[in-house]
Specification:
- The chain is of the alpha/beta class and 193 residues long.
- The protein has a single domain, classed as Phosphoglycerate mutase-like (Rossmann fold, 3-Layer(aba) Sandwich), CATH 3.40.50.1240.
- 40% of the residues lie in helices and 15% in strands.
- It contains six helices and six strands; from the N terminus they run H-H-E-H-E-H-E-H-E-H-E-E.
- Strand 5 and strand 6 form a beta hairpin.
- It is globular, with a radius of gyration of 19 Å.
- 31% of the residues are buried.
Length: 193
């Protein structure tokens, strides 16, 4: 009898983990398809942290950039929006190359919005309060009939707006008051939606 207990315990644990993973993957797509939501997307996978000293915002060769995983992840984000019929009004992005590339691979068309720029390190950290106010003002004035606003930005901005910690490429869906409605991880769990 004791010999059967260990395999059954292991089997039960595996089933529980599978159930929890599937439960975590349950996204409320009908609510997200209604429109009038803000999709905050942290740029896709770009190994490292921050940017090299002396980087130039207009020179991608001096910045941290998407790796192959990040490029594929960005393409999958675009495919997910099409598959789930998430209508898009505008795609706004930080001026950092890894954010613009995420937008390009996922959605093709985008506009730069400097308020979405990183405030992670000096000298940009001093702009945090001004940028957050500008983002909130933009969102308050944004009007769209049944479409959504996409904002591709950085960990530092999303954390300040939502008090949450997004992973690379994670999508945080919020209302106009930046209350979190749902989260869509796009790297760790893959696209099993």
């Amino acid at each position: 009898m004791r010999n059967n207990f260990v395999p059954r315990l292991i089997y039960s644990i595996i089933l529980l983990l599978f159930f929890l993973q599937n439960l975590a993957a349950e996204i409320n797509w009908p609510i997200l398809q209604e429109g009038n939501k803000i999709f905050l997307i942290r740029h896709a996978s770009a190994p490292g942290g921050g940017d090299p000293e002396g980087f130039k915002i207009n020179d991608c060769s001096t910045q941290r950039n998407l790796d192959k995983t990040g490029i594929e992840q960005s393409k999958n984000i675009g495919k997910l929006f099409k598959k789930k019929n998430i209508l898009i009004d505008k795609v706004l992005t930080s001026q950092w190359c890894r954010c613009k590339d995420t937008a390009k691979y996922a959605f093709k068309n985008y506009k730069e919005f400097s308020a979405l720029n990183s405030v992670f390190q000096s000298p940009f950290i001093k702009n945090e309060e001004k940028q957050i106010k500008e983002i909130k003002k933009y969102v308050k004035q944004w009007k769209s009939k049944n479409k959504n606003l996409i904002m591709i930005t950085h960990y530092s901005i999303i954390t300040k707006l939502t008090n949450s910690t997004p992973s690379s490429g994670e999508i945080i869906i919020v209302d106009k008051n930046f209350n979190i409605l749902d989260r869509v991880p796009t790297l760790k769990m893959g696209f099993l939606y």
